[in-house]
Amino acid sequence: MSLMSPDAPVIATDHLVRRYGRADAVNGLSLCVAPGRCYGFFGRNGAGKTTTIKCLLNLLRPTSGAVSVFGLDPARHEVDVKSRLAYVPDHVAFYPWMTVRETLDYFAAFRARWNRATEAALVDQFRLDLRQKASHLSKGQRTQLALITAICPEPELLVLDEPTSGLDPIVRREFIQTVIGAYQDADPGRRTVFVSTHLISEFEGLIDEFTIIEGGRNVLTLEADEARSRYQKIYARFASEPGTFDLGGARVLRQRGCDLEVVVNGNAADVMERLRARSPEALTTEALSLEEIFVTTLGPGGAAA
Amino acid sequence: MRFQLNFKSGKPVYLQLVDQVKAAAASGAVRPGEALPSIRPLAEELRVNRNTVAKAYSELESQGVIETAAGKGSVVRGQNSPLKKAARLDLLTHAIDEAVIQAHHLQVGKADCLRLTEDRFDAFQHKRDRLPQP
């Protein structure tokens, strides 16, 4: 196992390209995930999220470009890399004939470490029946079981691919609380989460940095707090119809009669000044949520459109 | 104490936590010696990253609002800030400047602004007085 400096990225891709036949699923993607972060990987269906994750796990070989996990090439050091991470895919499958107990033991057998106390606490919290056959578990229960098998080995990196899609809201909420609580419990500075999702609002509080991917390319990478301070929605109401005027690059979301709503990206002060000059009756701002930033970035008129 | 996060305020989440603890301490909603919730349950409850809560607590500690006591976790300090008076006045000047700037833009004059400041001092004092004595 190689020695890494504490701040060396846990995940790095450099101009990663992966083609299926003639179609580019990932097309020159560069990413850098620092240890201890909870990193969001946001994109629409078919944007290249799962293909990227499969390259990280050596389930697919890159067509070109480089991938490293813990500073290692996942193809050349497959065991080293996989022993330090855990992965929860969007479709979880277990051997149908095994019980929950047998499934947990089966997964534990592949791991150097397995935290029995965490296992017992989570089985209890999720109210799973250890004697239940995997084939009889609901989709929510299968995801919960997968999460237990991912957390008990205490991996340095937890890779989640659309983990909460198709689950009911209560299970989703518990899932996220478990990632925050049980996974980050010990040594949070070295517990890295890489989560791909399009259900962004649920992960809003968890994410400290994110990348939006579209067409296999990195469209936007930002710290979550910085994103929320840069992207603002400004609403102004005027005494009479303001007509069209120079908004200093702000994008108009809605203009109807005396109401005007615009989105700014980092230039709120300037746009506010321009609006104030027209003596609005009301002028308010609010930050965009990460989900709204996603929609703004990829929607009509956005940076990637 | 209860925390309420607003992702649409544009204010970093850890700073929202910092400001809420400071406001609660100023109004007497948390008392000196009282423990704040520990990081894990608070992070789970608010569904935010543990690093965010940890960052808020370390910021509160460096500002002298809380201290870490063995066996009790993070507790609210009494009126004995470890910062020198000059440093405390510096921090306050910065906050006042922001209020003065706001007052200018809202066309609220100096006299009104000072009167309002007095009212707010009294309002916080009133809140503290109404709490039952421990």
Please explain how this structure is put together.
Chain A is of the alpha/beta class and 305 residues long. Chain A has two domains: 11-215, 3-Layer(aba) Sandwich (Rossmann fold), CATH 3.40.50.300; 228-298, 2-Layer Sandwich (Alpha-Beta Plaits). In chain A, 30% of the residues lie in helices and 29% in strands. Chain A has helices spanning 49-56, 78-83, 100-109, 116-125, 139-151, 169-183, 200-203, 224-230, 268-276, 290-298, and strands spanning 11-20, 23-33, 38-43, 64-69, 85-88, 157-161, 192-197, 209-214, 217-223, 231-237, 251-256, 259-265, 282-287. A six-stranded mixed sheet of chain A has the order 5-6-7-3-8-9, with helices on both faces. In chain A, strand 6, helix 6 and strand 7 (192-197) form a beta-alpha-beta unit. The longest helix of chain A has 15 residues, at 169-183. Chain A is elongated and about 70 Å long. With 134 residues, chain B is mostly helical. Chain B has two domains: 13-76, Winged helix-like DNA-binding domain superfamily/Winged helix DNA-binding domain (Arc Repressor Mutant, subunit A); 85-130, no CATH class. Chain B has five helices and two strands. Chain B has helices spanning 13-27, 39-46, 50-62, 85-105, 110-130, and strands at residues 66-69, 73-76. In chain B, a hairpin with a 3-residue loop joins strand 1 and strand 2 (73-76). In chain B, helix 1 (13-27) packs across helix 3 (50-62) and helix 2 crosses helix 3. The longest helix of chain B has 21 residues, at 85-105. The radius of gyration of chain B is 16 Å and the shape is globular. The mean pLDDT of chain B is 87. Chain A binds chain B through residues 36, 38, 173, 176-177, 180-181, 184-185, 188, 204-208, 224-225, 228-229, 232, 285-290, and chain B through 5, 7-14, 40-41, 43-44, 46-52, 54.
